[in-house]
Every structure is written in C-alpha cells, then in structure tokens.
Design a protein that fits this description.
48% of the residues lie in helices and 14% in strands. By secondary structure, it is α/β, with parallel strands linked by helices.
C-alpha cells in the first residue's frame, strides 16, 4: 500500500491538475427523510431481545475484510438458546460499525444478509481489486480527468461488489444497523453514513450509493481524492433536535465538546458548501468511536435506548475486530536513511497504535459506565468487551506470517484462508467470549 501511495503521489505531482468531486447526494425533502436509513428506524425494526450486541470492524484493506468475515462465520456457527429458542450469535448482532477495509464486509452483509457466506469470498476477498486500481492510476488518461482517481474506484466497487445498491436497499427487515464511517478532511469530524448525519448536510441518504460510502470510508488520502458531498443550504440554521439538546446540556467532557463543535461546523453553510470525506481510519481505525459518540450525544445509554425504542437489556456486548499488524521495520537492519514511504509509514503506525490504545480504553470505560447507568434494582446489566486482534496470536510462526500480510486489496488465496481461519479461532478461543457464552448457558 505504501508503494501504491508513492506511485499516486508521484503522478499527482507530475500531473499538477485540479480535479473536482462528483456530487451524488440528493437534497433532503420532508417526505424523503421519514423512511431513510437511520439509527432510529433501523434499530426500531429489530427485536434486540435481552442483550445489546455491537460488532466493530477495523481498517486494513482485504486483511481487515477477511478477518472480520471469519469472525462473522464463527458467530453464525455459534448456536445459543435465548428465551427458549435456538439462535445463532450472528442473529443477535444489533449494530456493526466499520471503517476502511472492514466496511466492505459490513456493507455487503447489510445489503445481502446471509448471502455473504455464499459469494463474498469470490466477489471481493479473492479478487485482485488493487490491480484494477493501480491500472487505473497508471493510465495516462486518468491523470488529466477532472473527476480524479476516486471516481474510478467507486465505479469499480459498484460494478464488482455493490451493483448499484443505495441505502434504500440497505433497509433490510431485521438486519443490524450498519455504520459505515469516514473522516471529514476539513474539520476532522468522524462521519457515519446514516440519515442523522446526512440531516446535517440537508441531504437524503436513501438515494446515496453504498459503493460511494464504502469508498469514502477507505479512501487513503493522497492516493485517492476525497469523496465530496454537497452541504445544502435549504435547512440553514435548522439544527436537528438531538444536536440542539446535546448543545444545551452542560458539557464537562472535552471529548464530547469536540464532537459537538465538529458536528455544528456543518451549519457554517456559507463557508462549508461542500464536505470532503476520506479514510475512516484517520479518526478511528477500530470502528469503536461511532457507537461511543452516538450514545454520548444522545445524553447517555438510558436516553439512547429510549430514543431508539430499545427494551431494557441485561447485557451489553462489544466485539472489536482489530486487523492491525506489527511488522518489523526493515530500516533498523541498516544505517541507510529510510525512504519517504518508510518514514510516512512509521509515523502513521506510531500514531495509529497510540490512538487505538486510547480508543480501547475509552470504550472499556464507557461500557462499564453505561452498564451501571442501565442497571436497576434486582437487574444488573453486565458488560462484556471482547477484544480480538492479530497481536493476540500465541504461536510465533503464525503471528510472524500474519504480520507479513500487507494492507492491500489483493491477497493470495492462502492469505485469505489463514485470515478467515484466524478470525474464527480468535473469537472461539477468547476467554471473554467464553464467559459471555457461559452466561447464556453455553453454546449448543
């Protein structure tokens, strides 16, 4: 991926041409917003039962997509008995939050459900997606086109993976809420592709292509241009009730204050006529901050449950699937000065790992806090944070092999097989997952 970025940077410097984002988000009308894909409508359709379960998929190209797919396979094959009925653990998932490579898996499941286990490997995981992207980047005809390289990626993802699907198609009855997350390049805002966030842009998500959202979630800056959305003027100054309520509350948490300031920036309509979205991994490479921010802005766990129409749970379960690796840097084997690509990579990795650590600690702290908030006399809400990561592999040879798998969109069949198997084993052997299953009476 670093070589890919270097090629893109070189071509960008050579071309020196301005490109313009294609606007593909429609302006909001009152009628269109009622049935749009939103947190409230999607969660309100589901019977959450007695447990709220959230899956979070990290970034990391096809490596992340394959690892998260393996976890989903294991959830599908884990049968439990809840309320006297046998159900798969995958059926119990209420929300999937994802960034970058993980967004391909979450979006595909959101659109097609269990069909993912029939054709996703051939449609995406075992395809040389990166080869097509590199071919397009190296094509001289692309260098001077006004729409940029990102439109080429959107067309490829749409043709090969998502087939023209929009968020209206995502509203599959009974499916979990899918949070595809990107980063606002201008203001550093983490942005979820759901109607609540589109309201900030006075836009309707129903007609917005899923391929475009996934591209935004995985658009590595410099290599790809941002996905651009128009910030419509029609609702200038008319902030949604949930944002107004959040702003009225006394904000003591600097993180919440920063979130609100970022969201309020979309109402600088005269200055922010457009919003530019890139890789979601910049603002959260684990996919965990979206659920945290949504609950926080709602005013806490109890307020969020009430607004979403969810019943009082007995347990909160977060499963984090982290596909990040820790390869040994080659630069330390020589006194030769590292290349530009190596330097950028090392800086990015250091920042990424530090930010991931902060995100994990924030999630654990919040999960415990929400559980206490939701607990009532005689009914304690139990928190379960199930953390799955490649770094947890115990066998040195297997860990070394996984750490050599690159962040790319082209992996060998062997690499895909190992990642799927690893995802399944990480979940199956995780002590916190075993503890959670035991609380349900064990797997069947």
């Amino acid at each position: 991926m670093l070589k890919f970025m270097t090629v893109g940077l070189g071509l960008l410097l050579l071309s020196g041409c301005a490109s313009y984002g294609v606007i593909d988000n429609d302006e909001l009308s009152g009628a269109a917003s009622k049935g749009s894909y939103s947190i409230k409508t999607q969660q309100g359709r589901r019977d959450t039962g007695d447990i709220v379960m959230v899956l979070a998929f990290s970034g990391g190209g096809t490596r992340a997509a394959a690892l998260s797919y393996g976890v989903m396979q294991e959830l599908r094959d884990t049968i439990v008995k809840i309320d006297g009925r046998k159900r798969t653990m995958l059926d119990e998932i209420d929300t999937i939050s994802s960034v970058s490579g993980g967004s391909f898996t979450s979006a595909y499941y959101g659109l097609y459900g269990d069909r993912i286990f029939e054709d996703y490997e051939q449609v995406f995981l075992r395809q040389n997606i990166q080869g097509g992207l590199i071919h397009g980047v190296l094509n001289p005809l692309q260098w001077f086109r006004s729409t940029g390289r990102t439109e080429m990626a959107i067309k490829q993802y749409d043709k090969k993976v998502f087939h023209g699907a929009t968020f209206a198609d995502m509203q599959r009855q009974g499916g979990p809420l899918i949070l595809i997350n990107a980063s606002d390049l201008g203001y550093g805002v983490r942005f979820s592709f759901v109607q609540e966030y589109f309201n900030l842009l006075c836009s309707d998500i129903s007609t917005f292509p899923v391929a475009r959202a996934v591209t935004a979630s995985s658009a590595v800056p410099v290599l790809f241009n941002p996905v651009v959305l128009e910030n419509y003027q029609s609702c200038k100054g008319q902030k949604p009730d949930w944002l107004l309520a959040a702003e009225k509350r006394t904000v003591k948490d600097p993180q919440e204050e920063q979130i609100l300031q970022g969201l309020a920036s979309y109402y600088k309509k005269d200055k922010r006529q457009y919003a530019h979205f890139v890789d979601g991994g910049i603002t959260d490479n684990l996919g965990l901050r979206a659920p945290y921010e949504i609950v926080t802005i709602s005013g806490g766990a109890r307020a969020h449950m009430k607004k979403a129409g969810l019943s009082h749970p007995s347990g909160l379960v977060f499963i984090s699937v982290d596909a990040s690796t820790s390869p040994e840097p080659e630069m330390d084997a020589s006194r030769k000065q590292p290349s530009m690509a190596e330097t950028i990579g090392a800086i990015s990795d250091a920042q990424l790992h530090r930010y991931n650590t902060d995100t994990l600690e924030l999630t654990k702290k919040s999960l415990n806090s929400w559980s206490r908030e939701l607990s009532i006399r005689g009914k304690r809400v139990k928190p379960y944070f199930i953390q799955l990561g490649i770094k947890d592999i115990k066998q040195p040879e297997e860990l070394h092999y996984l750490n050599t798998i690159p962040t790319s969109f082209s992996l060998s069949d062997e690499q895909v097989d190992v990642l799927i198997k690893t995802g399944r084993e990480l979940l199956r052997n995780n002590p916190d997952f075993k503890r959670f299953l035991a609380s349900l009476g064990g797997a069947r």
